[in-house]
Specification:
22-stranded parallel β-sheet, 14-stranded parallel β-sheet, disordered C terminus
C-alpha cells in the first residue's frame, strides 16, 4: 500500500470596504476587513498547506504601523509552507499607503484676514494663485512632526512630487547669464601674496559691454583706485584700472591678463606694471538648473562662505534659513541651516560640511539653493507648511484632483526571518521613509508590484539564497529603488538571487548622491534585464563577488552629478570575480556646465578581477570607460561610441590609499572587516592572488609593494573606440606602463560604420576596422532590457573564452 499526503491550499480574502474581522475570511462573500487579522489566522493552517491572501482593490492605510510577516505568525516553521499575498483575480491592484489624501474641498483661497501672519510675505503677483489647507481641520489627523533635513512630510499632487518653496526655482536657468556680482579669488597658493590685493566682489556695469561681456567694477576701491574686469576684442581677460575695455599701459598701473575664450581660470600678473600674484576668476555663475553659487569660501574646513545674489540679503531677518548644495564635489550634497549677514554677504552654517576627509569642506564656486521660505512660494509645484499654525500653502496646478500628504515613518511591510513568501500585484506608496523590507528571508519573491512616492528606499531585500525581485515598477523614490543582498562574502556562498526585469524612473528624489537606482550585493547573484532612466546619480551599483550584471539598460543617468557612472563600484578588494556584459548605457549629459562629466562603465578605486565584455556605451558627455588602479581586469569586445573620452585609466591607488583602520580606502582593513580570510579556502583557492598581498597596509604602501595598487595584469583589447570628441584613450599617472595588454583596439580615425546606431543597431558593416583583428563577436541590443531573454548562443560561445581568461587572471 502506498502512503501519500494530500496537500490542500488555503485561500483568504481581505476587503477593507465590505469585510469584517469577525468573518471567516474564506470567501469573497465573507472577507476579513484587515490584512493584520488575515495574518493572525495563519497559525490555524494545517501543515503543508500553501496559503494565498487575496486583497481587494482599494486603499489600505498603514499610518505609523507595519504589516509584519514573521515566523511567529506562520504555522509550524519546521514544516514547509508558502505564503502569497496578491490582488483579487481580475481586479486592479490594491494600494497600501502611508499617506493621507487631502480633499480638494478642504483647500481655500489665500486670505488677508485668515492668513494675516503670512499674507505680506507672499509676493503680491502670486497671491491669487495660492491655496491654503488648514491641516488641523482634516477628518484624518495629520501629524507634521518637525521640519528636518530629510524625511519630513511631503506633498504630492496627481502623483507629482511638489517641493518646498525655494530660490532659485527648481531647474530654472538664467539664459541671459546675468549675475549680481562675481568674486575674484585670491591665489590658490597661500604663500603667494596678491599685490595690490584686488580680490573681492566685482559688480557688472551692464551699460558697458566688452566683447559681449559686461564690464565688472570692484565693489570697493583698492588703495583708492577702483579696478575693472573685462574681456577685450582680442580675447584677453584683464583686470586693470581702465574702464574702457582697452589694453592697459604703464600709466594704468598694476594689471593682470591672459588670453582665453572662457572666463574661469587664473590671470597672469604683469610684473613690470607692479602686479604680483595670480588672482582666480570663477565661471560666470549665473543661476543654473535651480542653483546659485558660493562666491568665496575662505577656509575649506570652516563654516562660513560669501554669496553673490542680492535676493539673499532680505533673509538676514531670520535666525536661520535652510540651504542645500554640493559644497565640495558633485558626489556629495548636504542640507544645512545658516545665518545670513547681509552687511558682509556672509552665511555661517550650523554644522561642518561633509563627514570624512575625502568629502569634507566647502569650496568657492559651488552650487546651492535656499528653501522652505514662504517669500519664495512663486511657482506652480511649490508649497510651504507653517508648522506652528498647521497650515499648508500651495501653488496648485489647474484642475488638481488628488492631493496626498505623506505620514508614516514606518515600513509599510516588513517580512522577517521566513521562507517561501511571495508578494505580487500590490502598489506601495506615500511613506516618509521606506516602503517594504525583506530581512533574513529565503526562497522568497516580490513581483509585479509598483513602488512610488516615498522618502527613502522603496525595497530592501536580504537573505541567504533564492530570492527574486522581478517585473516591478519603481518611480519617484526618495533614495534607492531596490537593493538585493544574498549569499555570504566570507564563505563565498552563492546566493543565486535575481534582480531582473525591473523598471526604475526618477529614483533618488530626496537623496541625490551616492544613491543608485538598483544595487546588488553579496555573492553569486544576478542583476539582469533592468531599465533605469532619469536618475540623479548611479544607475546600477554592485558590491560583492561573483555577481553577473547583464542585459541592463540605462539612459539619462547622473542628472544631478559629475564623476558618476551608469554602473559603479570600488574601494573593495573583496568585490571580485564579477562579470559585466551585454549592457547598454547611453544618452546622458549629467549636470551640465563646465567640467561636469558622467561615465558609462566605472570601475573605481582599485576595483579588481572584473570581466567586462559585449557592452555598448554611447553618447555620454564624459568617459565611456574608467578603470581606476584596479588589478587583473579584462575588458574586451565592447563598443565605446561618442564620448568625450573613450577610455581613461589612472594610478590613483598609490596616493589615495589610507592606512588608518576604518577608513574607506584601507582595502586590506575592509577585507578583514568583511570577514575575508585571504590565506584560507575558499578565498585562497578561488582568488589566490589576494593571498600574496602584503600582510598589513603599512607594508603595502612601501615603495617595493606599490605595484599592488596599480593596473597590473589588466588586459584591454578588441574594443571599438569611435566618435570620441576629445580623445580615445587617456592614460593618467603612467598607468599605461602597468597595463599588461592594450591592443587590437580601434580609434576614431579608423573606419567604423554602424548599420543604424541612432536606432540602437550597433552591428558594424564589414568595412569596419575591428574585423581585421579577427577577434570581434557581434553585439546585438535586441536581447537587452525588460522582458527580453538572454542570448544563449552567444553567451555559450563566449563562455569558453571567459573561462580561459578567468584561469589566466587567477
Amino acid at each position: 500500500m502506498t502512503n501519500f499526503t494530500l496537500i490542500y491550499s488555503r485561500d483568504i480574502y481581505v476587503d477593507n470596504t465590505s469585510g469584517k474581522d469577525t468573518n471567516p475570511g474564506d470567501s469573497k462573500i465573507f472577507p476579513f476587513e484587515s490584512l493584520q487579522n488575515a495574518l493572525s489566522t495563519l497559525k490555524d493552517t494545517p501543515p503543508y498547506d500553501p496559503i494565498t491572501i487575496y486583497v481587494k482593490s482599494g486603499y489600505y492605510p498603514f499610518i505609523n504601523k507595519t504589516l509584519s510577516i514573521t515566523h511567529n505568525i506562520l504555522p509550524d516553521p519546521s514544516v514547509y509552507h508558502s505564503l502569497t499575498i496578491t490582488k483579487y483575480p481580475n481586479e486592479s491592484p490594491p494600494v497600501i499607503t502611508g499617506g493621507v489624501k487631502l480633499p480638494i474641498s478642504s483647500f481655500r483661497a489665500f486670505d488677508a484676514t485668515k492668513d494675516a501672519k503670512q499674507y505680506s510675505k507672499i509676493q503680491s503677483k502670486v497671491r491669487s494663485k495660492i491655496q491654503v489647507c488648514d491641516l488641523n481641520n482634516q477628518y484624518n489627523k495629520i501629524e507634521l512632526g518637525i521640519l528636518e533635513a530629510t524625511n519630513s512630510v511631503e506633498i504630492f499632487v496627481d502623483e507629482q512630487r511638489y517641493h518646498l518653496a525655494r530660490y532659485p526655482n527648481s531647474e530654472y536657468t538664467d539664459n541671459t547669464h546675468s549675475t549680481d556680482r562675481i568674486y575674484v579669488l585670491p591665489p590658490t597658493d597661500n604663500t603667494t601674496l596678491l599685490v595690490p590685493n584686488i580680490a573681492g566682489y566685482y559688480f557688472p556695469l551692464k551699460e558697458v559691454m566688452c566683447a559681449n561681456y559686461p564690464l565688472f567694477k570692484s565693489e570697493k576701491p583698492i588703495l583708492g583706485i577702483h579696478y575693472y574686469l573685462y574681456k577685450n576684442t582680442t580675447n584677453y581677460w584683464t583686470i586693470s584700472s581702465r574702464f574702457d575695455c582697452g589694453i592697459p599701459t604703464q600709466k594704468d598701473g598694476a594689471y593682470w591678463t591672459i588670453k582665453r575664450e572662457k572666463i574661469a581660470g587664473a590671470l597672469n600678473p604683469i610684473e613690470s606694471s607692479g602686479a604680483h600674484g595670480k588672482p582666480i576668476l570663477q565661471d560666470e555663475n549665473y543661476v543654473y538648473r535651480g542653483n546659485m553659487w558660493t562666491a568665496y569660501a575662505p577656509d575649506r574646513y570652516g563654516r562660513t562662505f560669501y554669496y553673490s545674489d542680492n535676493i539673499i540679503d532680505k533673509y538676514a531677518q531670520y535666525q536661520e534659513i535652510w540651504l542645500r548644495g554640493y559644497w565640495l564635489i558633485f558626489a556629495h550634497d548636504q542640507i544645512v541651516r545658516g545665518k545670513v549677514d547681509n552687511s558682509t554677504r556672509k552665511i555661517t552654517v550650523d554644522r561642518d560640511f561633509g563627514k570624512n576627509p575625502d568629502f569634507q569642506g566647502i569650496m568657492s564656486g559651488r552650487p546651492f539653493y535656499i528653501f522652505n521660505l514662504l517669500e519664495e512660494l512663486d511657482e506652480e509645484g511649490e508649497y510651504y507648511i507653517d508648522y506652528e499654525d498647521k497650515k499648508l500653502f500651495i501653488y496648485l496646478k489647474e484642475n488638481a484632483a488628488k492631493i496626498w500628504i505623506t505620514q508614516s515613518t514606518f515600513n509599510l511591510i516588513h517580512v522577517y526571518n521566513v521562507t517561501n513568501v511571495t508578494i505580487k500585484n500590490i502598489i506601495f506608496e506615500y511613506a516618509r521613509k521606506n516602503l517594504v523590507h525583506f530581512t533574513l528571508v529565503n526562497n522568497s519573491k516580490i513581483t509585479n508590484c509598483t513602488f512610488r512616492h516615498c522618502g527613502l528606499r522603496a525595497l530592501y531585500f536580504s537573505g541567504t539564497h533564492n530570492n527574486n525581485i522581478t517585473h516591478n515598477i519603481f518611480y519617484d523614490t526618495g533614495s534607492e529603488a531596490a537593493l538585493l543582498d544574498c549569499g555570504n562574502i566570507s564563505t563565498l556562498y552563492n546566493g543565486k538571487c535575481y534582480l531582473e526585469h525591473n523598471y526604475a524612473n526618477s529614483s533618488a528624489q530626496v537623496y541625490f548622491n551616492f544613491v543608485p537606482a538598483f544595487s546588488i550585493k553579496g555573492v553569486g547573484n544576478f542583476m539582469k534585464h533592468n531599465l533605469v532612466e532619469n536618475t540623479p546619480h548611479i544607475a546600477f551599483y554592485h558590491g560583492g563577488a561573483k555577481i553577473e550584471i547583464s542585459y541592463n539598460e540605462a539612459r539619462n543617468f547622473c542628472t544631478r552629478a559629475s564623476d558618476c557612472g551608469a554602473i559603479y563600484s570600488g574601494t573593495h578588494w573583496e568585490f571580485v570575480g564579477n562579470e559585466i556584459k551585454n549592457n547598454y548605457f547611453h544618452d546622458s549629459v549629467g549636470f551640465g556646465k563646465e567640467n561636469s562629466y558622467v561615465i558609462g562603465l566605472y570601475l573605481d578605486d582599485n576595483l579588481s578581477h572584473h570581466i567586462v565584455y559585449q557592452n555598448v556605451v554611447s553618447n555620454i558627455v564624459g568617459m565611456c570607460l574608467v578603470l581606476a588602479s584596479g588589478r587583473s581586469n579584462t575588458v574586451f569586445n565592447n563598443i565605446f561610441f561618442k564620448c568625450k573620452i573613450g577610455f581613461s585609466g589612472n594610478s590613483k591607488g598609490v596616493y589615495r590609499y589610507h592606512t588608518t583602520p576604518g577608513m574607506f580606502y584601507n582595502l586590506l582593513d575592509t577585507m578583514e572587516t568583511s570577514g575575508v580570510d585571504r590565506y584560507s579556502p575558499p578565498w585562497s583557492v578561488q582568488f589566490p592572488e589576494w593571498s600574496k598581498l602584503p600582510l598589513t597596509s603599512d607594508e603595502l604602501i612601501k615603495e617595493q609593494n606599490l605595484h599592488w595598487l596599480v593596473m597590473e595584469n589588466t588586459d584591454i583589447y578588441c574594443n571599438v573606440f569611435s566618435g570620441s570628441y576629445n580623445m580615445d584613450y587617456r592614460f593618467l599617472e603612467n598607468c599605461d606602463k602597468y597595463i599588461r595588454r592594450f591592443e587590437m583596439n580601434t580609434n576614431s580615425s579608423q573606419t567604423t560604420t554602424f548599420y543604424d546606431y541612432k536606432n540602437g543597431d550597433f552591428r558594424m558593416r564589414k568595412n569596419s576596422q575591428i574585423y581585421k583583428y579577427k577577434c570581434w563577436k557581434e553585439i546585438s541590443l535586441e536581447n537587452i532590457g525588460i522582458n527580453k531573454e538572454d542570448k544563449t548562443v552567444d553567451i555559450l560561445e563566449m563562455s569558453s573564452c571567459v573561462a580561459i581568461l578567468l584561469l589566466l587572471i587567477l
